[in-house]
Design a protein that fits this description.
Blueprint lengths: L1 E6 L5 H8 L4 E6 L4 E3 L4 E3 L2 H8 L4 E2 L7 H10 L3 E5 L7 H4 L5 E6 L7 E2 L2 H7 L4 E8 L9 E8 L6 H24 L15 E2 L15 H10 L7 E4 L2 E11 L10 E2 L13 E4 L4 E9 L5 E2 H7 L11
Helix pairs in contact: 1-6, 5-7
Length: 317
């Protein structure tokens, strides 16, 4: 088939790597424009752009993919299909009308659950026991098209958004390898999604990661994992940012307010490296690793030794 690939981040690399060697005619790669990154804020290309150029593929990076000039460039390629993996822009109907066979999207959730921009993060925030990948045909509504295939993945207690995406990316590519040939031959019957089960995963904002210590410890723990590696769950200590990198919920009851730093309780269940706990609305959160502004990451034990009078301090607020 004559295929255009649309994708941008690291998550999309396994899928495009397979397409490059698949025997399909990969006409071009559409990815996001280069973005400022690092301390110098120099422009950095998306990972998909770097891989495509290394293989000599034409790369299109339109700021607005639905703009007339972008649509004209895509029409000129005469694609039979467009394969989308974490591209990053909403597609409008004129673009959907371009490929003669249609568009396939590899989405990192078990649709119809967690439609939208941050499905792995949403799965962790919701406390889901599993997530997965879905391949669907693209329609105008967000991630609402009929499904061709799904594959599940259990969510472990130590999973973060970063580690989940590292597992989901190759899983999605494997499912694409199985699904695309059968779809091309017309052997699959697309299954409509149950709209009553649909949930949404909005784009993550930096302010979402500010810790609310009045929440139950299990909820704060899920946020620590969901906002890793970005934007990182953050509170404040003595007026400066404190990033909580790794934590564990504890079922303890202490007569102090949320956000107060506590000594670790005696007994089992306290993870290695934890140095202290923080009272939550219910229970407490053992801090295993954390990082003060401008400092290196420390274990909870190291932080307790390095901050005078840490026990009893109020975090946040």
């Amino acid at each position: 088939m004559r295929i255009v690939f649309m994708g941008s981040p690291q998550f999309a690399l396994p899928a495009i790597e397979w397409l490059i060697g698949s025997g399909h005619e990969l006409l071009a790669v559409v990815t996001q424009p280069d973005q400022p990154a690092g301390r110098g804020r120099s422009l950095r290309p998306p990972p998909v752009s770097e891989l495509a150029r290394a293989h000599g593929l034409p790369v299109l990076q339109p700021p607005r993919v639905n703009a007339p000039e972008s649509l004209d460039a895509l029409r000129a390629l005469k694609p039979e299909a467009i394969v989308i993996v974490a591209y990053g822009q909403i597609l409008k109907q004129p673009l959907l009308d371009i490929p003669s066979r249609g568009l396939l999207n590899v989405h990192a959730s078990l649709l119809p659950r967690h439609r939208g921009a941050a499905p792995a993060t949403a799965a962790l925030l919701a406390g889901d026991a599993e997530t997965g990948v879905t391949i669907l045909e693209v329609v105008l509504a967000l991630d609402a098209g009929p499904m061709l295939a799904r594959r599940s993945l259990a969510i472990s207690d130590d999973a973060t958004t970063g580690s989940l995406n590292e597992k989901l990316a190759p899983l999605g590519a494997e499912l694409l390898i199985e699904t695309l040939p059968a779809w091309e031959r017309g052997e699959l019957t697309p299954q409509p999604q149950d709209e009553a089960l649909a949930t949404y995963a909005p784009m993550v904002r930096r302010e979402d990661a500010i810790i609310d210590w009045s929440l139950p410890a299990a909820d704060v723990w899920r946020r620590v994992r969901a906002y890793s590696p970005w934007p990182v769950a953050t509170t404040s200590l003595d007026g400066q940012a404190l990033r909580v990198l790794e934590a564990w919920p504890l079922d303890v009851s202490v007569d102090v307010g949320p956000g107060v730093v506590l000594p670790l309780p005696d007994g089992a269940g306290v993870p290695e490296g934890a140095g202290f706990a923080v009272r939550c609305g219910e229970g407490a959160l053992a801090v295993i690793r954390a990082q003060r502004a401008g400092r290196r990451a420390l274990s909870g034990e190291e932080l307790l030794r390095g901050v005078r009078g840490l026990l009893g301090k109020q975090l946040g607020g």
